[in-house]
Design the sequence.
């Protein structure tokens, strides 16, 4: 892994009021009721609702917390975490990932 450089501003706004979005990454030991959350990461950002362009990312307001699981990580969860698949087809989420230039968070 490498630390990403996040600039102070990605783009200049070009239109109507911006909206605030939140990239949320939740890692679990699996999908069953007894499985546990082992990481929660959140990164707020502003974007243009018409285009999905990211304007600002608030890295100083980011949250990333991990915890040691008390149950084993399932084989299915491990396979999904390592696959790099993107289960979403949302223009804003995709734009955020492309702007952040990472495939660490399923982008």
Sequence:
């Amino acid at each position: 892994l490498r630390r990403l450089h996040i600039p102070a501003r990605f783009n200049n706004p070009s239109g109507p009021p911006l909206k605030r979005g939140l990239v949320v990454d939740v890692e679990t030991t699996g999908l069953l009721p007894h499985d546990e959350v082992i990481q929660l990461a959140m990164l707020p950002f502003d974007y243009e609702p018409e285009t999905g362009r990211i304007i600002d990312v608030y890295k100083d307001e980011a949250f990333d917390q991990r915890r040691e699981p008390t149950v084993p990580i399932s084989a299915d969860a491990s396979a999904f975490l390592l696959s790099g698949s993107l289960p979403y087809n949302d223009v804003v989420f995709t734009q955020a990932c492309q702007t952040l230039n990472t495939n660490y968070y399923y982008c």
Strands lie at 19-28, 37-47, 54-57, 63-66. The CA atoms of residues 16 and 48 lie 8 Å apart. Confidence is low (pLDDT under 50) at residues 86-90, 102-107. The helical segments are 75-83, 91-100.
